[in-house]
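Today's session is about reading a structure prediction critically. Students often jump straight to the picture, but the first step is always the sequence itself: look for stretches that repeat, for charged clusters, for runs of hydrophobic residues. Only then move on to the predicted structure, which in these notes is written as discrete structure tokens rather than atom positions. Here is the chain we will use throughout the hour.
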Amino acid sequence: MPFDYLFGLDSAPRSDEENELLITVFDNVQLCMIRGILEAEKIPYLVRERGSGSAVKIISGFSLYGSDVFVEKNCIERARDLIDAYVS
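Below is the predicted structure for this chain, in token form.
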């Protein structure tokens, strides 16, 4: 049984009716940068830690599992354009 299967990391994060996945990041610097961009542009967002990432982040300060950043569906194109301009 693979490790990812046990922790639910093998499947793509689920979008819901209102939010869509913008990006998955694996370090705090990139997460802070993306959060800053979205906040500066007043784009609402939600950060969800993968697997047991929340607990690991509290203990060690970072997570190997990644953080998924979701934005409202009506803002997704604008958010992607902004992120692509800064991250690329």
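Discussion point for the tutorial: Residues 53 and 69 are 14 Å apart (CA to CA).
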